[in-house]
Write a structure and sequence with these properties.
It is a single chain. This protein has 17 helices and 14 strands. Helix 3 packs parallel to helix 8 and helix 13 runs antiparallel to helix 15. The chain is an alpha+beta fold and 475 residues long. Strand 6 and strand 7 form a beta hairpin.
């Protein structure tokens, strides 16, 4: 899963699927420069498919991929898990290539083919030498449009995904955040998990998989992205050759309509007490901001002010934020991380706390929420400048390599409809002031409902109403 730390929103939390990769030494000139995101060119084909590129003439490799505006949110309760299931089956053979042929083709070009599913997106991408880009686009088009979805392959992957589900259930952070979504967006598509319940994984049929493709794998919901040494005109030419047959629109069935309804944030909590777990693992969130919200970068700066903390790190006493200093001084937590997760119409802004000081859980939560409340009225310029510097560095460091650049372009275009360059983002962040942060905190944090997810030894955690009362303290 992608990190939920400072750059969380730059690459969403993801379920990795099957992938093929071959480790090989790529010969390159000694002075080959790394290219950050420069000018992004876009073209829309007649069927509505968007093609976007960031061309770097010095790059010897390219990443090409298809970003699809459909994930687990586009499912129903009965079909939850379908998008992730399809991601696995994409590599199991098409009407033109067997699984063995597909694997050999990728291996022989020394390339890398992968896919992932999130709540709102599904992505298939390949990385290879520039000369192999046409072959990569051919393969992507084949697995997206001609997957055989054979019954034998479905049954094999069913077992694989069930084992993956078991592994996810052992990862405490994954469990806590899945519960957080489930309680914050109760009985809504956004509240469902990406893998789906185990019963669904056992019951998903080929018909449901085919219907998901017909509904969601359509040109108006897809962006073909190229980053590296692939010229824009070349990728447009390949797109017209291999994707011209994509349907422009899919049927607007119940699942589609539900996925486009605004998600309602519900103040609530879910607790799974297990005293066999030696730590208390707690996520607390208010309703955050969407990708398009004017407060998007203000939310990230505010999150960075709260900061992160890990007692195991050597710099633990000096991690910058006031909360990390307080927590370390009083030995309240093993770690914490603030997060700001965005979706198309809403988000979650909060903090994830882990502690083995079980008799002091209430202190940890209390002072974390008090830090939130402080942001409404008392934020220094130095705090804001530190947070802005960290955020800008995080954004630039996340754009290292053609795959990261392609991810940035695809994610922005599929979620907002446009691409903001690093320079534009930097200007937006630079304009954020301490006053902006305090106004954001006053609107989004002060006296707002919270969603709480807690797992482990949580007997000492306050009841919900007391937590809610902390959101409007009497200083």
């Amino acid at each position: 899963m992608a990190s939920r730390r400072l750059a969380l929103n730059l690459s969403q939390g993801l379920r990795k699927g099957a992938s093929f990769a071959r480790t090989s030494r790529l010969t390159r000139g000694l002075a080959t420069p790394a290219s950050p995101v420069g000018k992004v060119e876009t073209t829309t084909l007649k069927n509505g498919l968007t093609v976007a590129t960031n061309y770097s003439p010095w790059s010897q490799t390219s990443t090409v991929g298809m970003w699809i505006d459909a994930g687990s949110r586009a499912e129903t309760d009965e079909t939850n898990g379908t998008a992730h299931f399809l991601e696995h089956l994409a590599f199991k053979g098409t009407s033109n290539r067997t699984q063995q042929q597909l694997e050999l083709e990728i291996e022989n070009m020394g390339g890398h083919l992968n896919a992932y599913t999130s709540r709102e997106n599904t992505v298939y991408f390949a990385k290879a030498f520039n000369s192999d880009v046409p072959q990569c686009v051919d393969i992507l088009a084949d697995i997206l449009q001609n997957s055989k979805l054979e019954e034998a392959a479905i049954e094999r992957e069913r077992d694989v995904i069930l084992r993956e589900s078991e592994e996810v259930e052992k990862q405490m952070e994954e469990v806590v955040f899945d519960h957080l979504h489930a309680t914050a967006f109760q009985h809504q598509p956004l509240g469902r998990t990406i893998l789906g319940p185990r019963q669904n994984i056992r019951d998903i049929t080929r018909t449901e998989l085919v219907n998901y493709i017909k509904t969601n794998y359509t040109a108006d919901r897809m962006v073909l992205v190229g980053a590296g040494g692939v010229p824009h005109d070349k990728l447009v030419e390949l797109a017209e050759k291999y994707f011209a047959g994509l349907p422009s629109h899919g049927p607007q069935n119940q699942a589609y309509l539900l996925s486009k309804q605004k998600a309602d944030f519900i103040g609530s909590d879910v607790r799974v007490r297990d005293d066999q777990i030696p730590t208390a693992n707690i996520a607390i969130a208010v309703e955050g901001v969407s990708w398009n919200d004017d407060d998007y970068y203000t939310a990230l700066v505010t999150q960075a002010i709260v900061g992160n903390y890990d007692k195991a790190l050597g710099n633990a006493p000096h991690q910058g934020s006031k909360l990390s200093g307080f927590v370390h001084k009083h030995d309240l937590a093993n770690s914490f991380m603030s997060f700001s997760t965005s979706y198309s119409d809403t988000g979650l802004w909060g903090i994830y706390l882990v502690t083995d000081k079980l008799t002091r859980v209430d202190d940890l939560v209390h002072f974390a929420l008090r830090e939130w409340m402080r942001l409404s009225s008392n934020v220094s310029d130095s705090e804001v400048e530190r947070a802005k510097a960290q955020l800008k560095a995080s954004i630039l460091l996340s754009l290292d390599g053609t795959t990261a650049v392609a991810e940035d372009i695809g994610r922005q275009l599929i979620t907002t409809g446009r691409h903001a360059s690093p320079a534009e983002i930097e200007r937006l962040i630079d304009h954020i002031s301490a006053k902006d942060v305090m106004e954001f905190a006053s609107r989004k944090l002060w006296d707002q409902d919270v969603a709480v997810s807690a797992v482990g030894s949580i007997d000492a955690l306050f009841d919900y109403q007391r937590l809610r009362n902390t959101m409007k303290p009497k200083f």
